[in-house]
Write a structure and sequence with these properties.
Number of helices: 15
Number of strands: 15
Strand order of the largest sheet: 7-6-5-8-9
CATH architecture of the largest domain: 3-Layer(aba) Sandwich
Shape: elongated
Number of domains: 2
Order of helices and strands: EHEEEEHEHEHEHEHHEEHEHEHEHHHEHH
Length: about 325
């Protein structure tokens, strides 16, 4: 049975999880979904230090003429990557959300740079950057204002639908700032953690049937990062199997019909108790295998929406909770 879920963009699913989480993706959101494009591609560089460098993005060819020394990051993705690979004296601006423990996976690294946390075009321009990372959802007028106010290249990444794209975004960030060695270490660490987590799954384990679902009725179907992570750990995404493409809304009756082994729900800090009440007080959901076996997994939204190397945190959490007993852990 294929469910006819209402189609909804990646931006809207984040809005359903939490309004505040929109800032995970940067300055401001448009009313339209971003144009789907292939991953950014490198263009050959020249010069003794490998500059100028350029990549092809949703905005065409972006050229970085020299190794950037005044980098401004206005997305949580690039904050989380740059704080790991970039010397802090070259990072003159980060997004304010990096200091919010509810959404940031880089709080400890961001706190020493708290005075550099900014948000908004005027603040960016005032820093006289030579490279700016902004959100794929940033409105055209925001990009126009930045281009008019500063000469820095402006980079937007638009693809976050699978682990390969996450790797590519990290690698492109490191390439553009001239920190390939540190970037390779970061990606290798992420891949090692994912590989080791998968290796802990018991041999012959029955693939668990999983659905992402919460009080706002959103689910992640095929073509999403969540779906790719489930494939990586050998789990079955019931939304994808039943025809949901990308993000959509479904009802509790549909979840009951699918009868999942596990329900995965992204949750904001402080909302854990109310979310559990919603699940365990709903007789339709309690009739599912997940309901009968107390298989509701609440995932902090900072991990549930991670689009950086911290996807490894989510992989480890899912493997531990879905596959492993206390003795295994």
């Amino acid at each position: 049975m294929k469910v006819h879920a209402s189609r909804i963009s990646a931006k809207e699913i984040l809005c359903g999880l939490t309004l505040t989480s929109l800032i995970l993706y940067g300055l401001s959101c448009s009313k339209e979904s971003p144009q789907e494009t292939s991953a950014p591609e490198r263009v050959a560089e020249s010069g003794s230090d490998g500059f100028p460098r350029s990549i092809q993005t949703i905005d065409g060819e972006i050229v970085v003429p020299k190794k950037p020394q005044r980098i401004v990051s206005q997305t949580l993705l690039t904050d989380e990557v740059l704080l790991e690979i970039c010397p802090t004296d070259r990072l003159v601006g980060i997004h304010t959300v990096s200091l919010d423990p509810a959404f940031s996976n880089c709080l400890e690294l961001a706190e020493p740079l708290a005075e550099r946390a900014i948000n908004g075009t005027e603040a960016i321009i005032s820093l006289e950057p030579d490279l700016v990372f902004v959100a794929s959802f940033s409105r055209a007028e925001v990009i126009d204002q930045l281009q008019a106010g500063c000469e820095a290249p402006i980079v937007r990444f638009s693809d976050f639908d699978n682990l390969d794209q996450i790797r590519n975004n990290i690698e492109m960030t490191g390439y553009l700032i001239g920190e390939e060695t540190a970037t390779e270490v970061l990606v290798d660490k992420m891949d090692t953690r994912i590989r080791e987590a998968v290796s802990r799954i018991p041999k012959g384990a029955t693939p668990p049937k999983v659905v992402s679902f919460g009080p706002a009725s959103y689910t992640a179907g095929g073509g999403t990062l969540f779906d790719d992570i489930l494939k990586t750990i050998g789990a079955v995404n019931l939304a994808a199997v039943n025809g949901v493409d990308r993000f959509g809304q479904i009802g509790t009756e549909q979840v009951a019909f699918w009868n999942p082994d596990w329900v995965i729900c992204g949750v904001d800090p402080g909302a854990e108790e109310s979310t559990r009440d919603w699940f365990f007080e709903n007789p339709v959901l309690q009739a599912t295998r997940a309901g009968r076996e107390d298989h509701l997994l609440l995932v902090p939204n900072r991990l549930y929406t991670a689009a950086s190397q911290h996807v490894a945190d989510l992989v480890e959490l899912l493997v531990e909770e879905i596959y492993l007993t206390e003795e295994d852990q």
